[in-house]
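Hey team,

Filing this mostly as a record. A colleague (T.K.) asked me to run one chain through the structure pipeline before their review meeting, and I want the input and output archived in the tracker in case anyone asks later how it was produced. No errors, nothing strange. Just documentation.

Input sequence:
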Amino acid sequence: MTPGSRELHIAPAHPAFAGHFPGRPIVPGVVLLDEVARALTAALGLDRPRWQVGQVKFVRPVGPGESVVLRWKPAATHGAIAFAIETVDGVAVASGTLTPGHPPRADDR
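Output structure:
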């Protein structure tokens, strides 16, 4: 796997903003993780992996319509992918590791 990057954009109309948080909407961490997993799945050509979260640290909130940059590379742990999310100006938003697992079996759905 080669290191990569991709810009992510959370639409201002995303349904998560309705409850997070009235008066000061922010992107929930789970939405950021979902965007990371989707981007990695597509970029790496994976077939619906079950992602395992190794660790994640959120250090700055992301607001509606804000674009961020996702960067990734192989992690020290076998098979894991280290990722970092930054603002387009390079300010850290989140970082962590994800490991792709096997896709769900038909009887798991």
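Quick notes for T.K.: DSSP finds one helix and five strands in the chain. The mean pLDDT is 90.
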